[in-house]
Write a structure and sequence with these properties.
It is a single chain. By secondary structure, the chain is an alpha+beta fold. The protein is built from three helices and seven strands. A seven-stranded antiparallel sheet has the order 1-7-6-5-4-3-2, covered by helices on one side. A hairpin with a 2-residue loop joins strand 4 and strand 5. Helix 1 (15-23) packs across helix 2 (25-31), helix 1 packs across helix 3 and helix 2 crosses helix 3 (114-148).
Length: 150
């Protein structure tokens, strides 16, 4: 049965600015956890359906990697499906609201290896939730700076 982590944040910026923070690789690296690195599988970065990328956890020697492909793309929505030590989806949705955007991040995943699953649930689950919230806060700051023209 998949695990689901979902968080949201109110951002004082338009949905298009918030979306740009998710789809522009240079901006993504400003809010993504510094332990993670995202790179395109092919030469050019894209968030079009079918585009492939890899998320690399920069741990010395092992560098676990999640291979991902964009499986859904609409204005304000990007969904990456990934396979590796995790299998699942990472959905980002920008919902315009009266004073900006509500950004929802839904991380739905399964860990097929029982030992890895135990390790994640024992040691990393609470850290992952905290990290998701920290990323949303960093993304919020960047989007709001872009909105006011810094």
């Amino acid at each position: 049965m998949p695990q689901v982590l979902e968080q949201s944040i109110q951002i004082n910026a338009t949905a298009s600015v918030v979306e740009r923070c998710i789809t522009d690789l240079a901006l993504m690296h400003r809010w993504l956890n510094p332990v993670l690195r995202c790179e395109p599988v092919n030469e050019a970065w894209s968030t079009d359906v079918g585009s492939q990328s890899r998320f690399i956890i920069q741990i010395p020697l092992i560098q676990p990697t999640l291979n991902s492909v964009v499986v859904e793309r609409k204005p304000g929505i990007v969904v990456w499906e990934f396979k590796g030590f995790f299998q699942g989806r990472d959905r980002w949705e920008c919902q315009p609201v009266e004073k900006g955007t509500r950004l929802i991040n839904r991380f739905e995943f399964d860990i097929p290896n029982p030992l890895v699953s135990w390790g994640f649930n024992t040691f990393a689950a609470s850290w992952t939730k905290e990290d998701m919230q920290a990323q949303l806060l960093r993304l919020k700051r960047i989007a709001e700076e872009l909105e006011i023209g810094y």
